[in-house]
Amino acid sequence: MNYEIETPISEECASSLAVGDTVYISGKIFCGRDAVLPKIVKLAESGEVASLGVSLAGGVVFHTAVSPAGVGPTSSNKLEIESSIAPLSAAGIKLHLGKGKLGKDTVEALARYNSVYAVIPPVTALLGAKVKDTRLVAFPELGMEAFYELTVDRYPAIIAASGGRSIYD
After folding, report:
1. CA 14 to CA 20: how far, in whole Å?
2. pLDDT for 134-161, tens place per residue?
3. Model's pTM, two decimal places?
4. d(CA 98, CA 77)
5. Is the dihedral of CA 123, 68, 31, 14 positive or negative?
6. How far, rounded to the nearest angstrom, does the alpha carbon of residue 24 sit from its chain's CA centroid?
7. What is the average pLDDT across 100-109?
8. pLDDT for 86-99, tens place per residue?
9. Fold classification of 2-162 (topology level)
């Protein structure tokens, strides 16, 4: 099925998404990858995320860096990224965007926290046209790997893990 999704994502919306569904995401999404996601996990676990001026509740995290060349997915199964998925889901993230197969434990953690994982086509020109605004949220010293918030319009993705199932199985 095809879904138009506005952020923040509700629990009901997250639970309705199934493997193979196509989603078009509009609203604010967060961007982070290897260098910053472990830092965001620590802030979430210590209850300090609000100090960044954002809420993770119903949020979307895109596994990418933000650079002048645009945004494109990085491999979500990198240790620093994949190990952030369960704790960020526990902190309220409902949708993780990236590329690549996730481990069984991560797919099960997504189900436990009513979160989903979607793969996004690696087409930076298409995605760049869908970004309406970019804001640096935290860790500017990490350059393009800092924590960013984007405002997007109809960002395309395909649900790849939901309800304990993976499109890669």
Report:
1. 14
2. 999 999 999 999 999 999 999 888 999 9
3. 0.83
4. 9
5. negative
6. 13
7. 96
8. 999 999 999 999 99
9. fumarase (3.20.130)
Burial zone of 94 (CB within 10 Å; 0-12 exposed, 13-18 middle, 19+ buried):
buried
Task: Identify whether the C-beta of residue 54 lies closer than 8 Å to the C-beta of residue 149.
Answer: yes
SS3 40: helix
Name the token pair of 125.
């020109």
**Segments making up each domain of the chain, as ranges:** 2-162
Q: Are the C-beta atoms of residues 63 and 36 closer than 8 Å to each other?
A: no
List Cα–Cα distances, 84 to 13, 37, 133, 156, 157, in angstroms: 22, 6, 25, 22, 20
Q: Residue 14 is encoded by which pair of tokens? A: 């997250």
Query: Concatenated DSSP letters for 44-93?
Result: HHTT-GGGGT---TT-EEEE---BTTB----BTTSHHHHHHHHHHHHTT-
The residue length of the chain stands at 169
Query: What is the per-residue pLDDT for 131?
Result: 87
Residue 129: how many other CB atoms lie within 10 Å: 12
32 three-class SS: strand
